[in-house]
Fold:
Amino acid sequence: MKKILIVFHSQEAGNTKRMAELVARGCRQVRGVQVSMVNTNERRVDMRRLEELAKHMGWEKVAPSVTCQGRPKGEAIKKAVALGKSLAQHITSAK
Structure:
């Protein structure tokens, strides 16, 4: 089973958490994928170390980021779910 880690920072309004959940929903549309989520507002995560680890592991950026202002709706929802699905398809098709 392939694993995807979604790292995000969301505060009280929860808009970014909702976007991360939408990306996770898209990931889960692909068989053989396990998704974990980490809110850096709830857990301490050193993004520099995470990026360094990713570089040393040969990880690559496979899709552009998705952003929105305020609560996700309309096109932002579609793009977030599509991002997750693209990520999951990429890792499940990788050798």
Notes: DSSP finds three helices and two strands in the chain. The beta strands are 2-8, 33-39. Residues 75-93 form the longest helix (19 residues).
